[in-house]
Each structure stands twice: as structure tokens, then as C-alpha cells.
Amino acid sequence: FQPRSTPPEPPVLLIAHLRAGERAPEGAAALLVEGTGQATDELAPPPGGTPWGVSLETASPEQVSRLKERGCDFLLLASLDSPAAALDTDMGRLLMVAPSLADSELRALGNIADAAVVDLTADAFSIRCLMGCHRLAGLLGKPLLAMVSPEVGGTEVRQLAGAGVRGLISRASQDRFLEWHKELVSHPALKTPTAVVLPAPPPPREETE
To answer: What local confidence, expressed as pLDDT, does residue 179 receive?
Structure first.
């Protein structure tokens, strides 16, 4: 018998962006549930045990606490005007970042978040877009993730990885996620970086008698 080999992991984390209750596509390594407009108590972990997080425009400390109780692994906050107390958690803390932020602000953001996310869904995929990703990745000092359109192809995904993007968040179909996965693991120039791992709260300690 030949030993069973472990499927290679791409150097870019593929994250499916889902609406509450939506089924996760195969090929995604993590799930991000859209929580804006949803009651916190209605947000539940998708089936399957895949790491999951919640995207919110802003969050109160009470909302953050309830999400942790429901098993949430990471939280994405879209507004930098969110209460600072929302960052006082051992869940993974992701913040949306605008390319218009000054260099000093980007360095500061890297000091308070575990990762940053830039929204590229409305941008034309251009040289300027890649330059912007290079700038953000170089200044943050933390992993840079990008929200991308489901229409982005394998070549563009590979170029984003080369520009320092360590994770992709998308509402893409299962076929598209599998295409991206294949492109990323098959390109020799992208095999050096290790896949980014989103921080998650430690498992609860078992009480001993």
C-alpha cells in the first residue's frame, strides 16, 4: 500500500462569505457569516466544524461576548469607529482597512488587529490595485486579506498572492473556490509562504474533580 498523502494547503487562506444559514462551499478553509442586520443570537456556527467568524459593521462588547459563547472563532469589524472595547477578546480580530489611510495609521492598525481586510469587490483589477496591496501588506505587519468578486479568475488570485495578500474572502461558488485552490497549490512561486492561520479563542478548559 502507498501511504496516503495529505492534500496540499494553498499559501492563501480561502474564506467563504456566507449569509446566515447559507451552505458552505467545498474548498473553503474558513467561513465568514454576514452578521450586519442579524440578531446576534440568530448567528450560529455552520455545520461541519470549519473555523468561522462573523462580519459586523460595528459591535458592542456585549455582542462580542455573545458571539464567543456561540463558538465564533474570529470577528471582522467594518467600522474603525467601533468601540475599542470590542477588541478586548481572544477571538481573532480583523479590521477593514481603507487604502486611503496614511502610512502611520496603517502601522498603528497593525498593532491592534490580528489581520486586516481590504475590499476589492468594486475595484477594477489593475496594476494600481496590485500596487495598493503591496503597500498595505508592507505597512501593516499583519496578514492582509482581501474581499474579492466571485468573477476573479485563477491568474488574478495568483497575482494577489504575489502582492502580499494572505487570504481571500468571497461569495464565490464551489467551482470557483476549487479553481482558486488548484491554481494556488500548483504554482511553484507561491509554495514558499506558509498558509495564514486565523487566531481563535482557546478551547474551554475541562474542570477536574
So the answer is: 92
Within 10 A of 124 (CB to CB), how many other CB atoms are there? 7
Tell me the H-state helices in the chain. 61-69, 103-112, 127-140, 154-162, 174-186
Asked if 209 and 180 count as a contact pair (C-beta separation under 8 A), the reply is no
pLDDT, mean of residues 110-134? 92
Tens-place pLDDT, residues 158-200: 999 999 999 999 999 999 999 999 998 887 565 545 556 666 6
Cα–Cα distance, 182 to 190 (Å, whole number):
12
Cell of 135: 503597500
Specify the pairing of strand 115-119 against strand 30-34: unpaired
pTM of the entire structure? 0.86
Give φ, ψ of 179 to 5 degrees.
Answer: -65, -45
Close Cβ partners of 153 (under 8 Å, ≥ 6 residues apart): 179
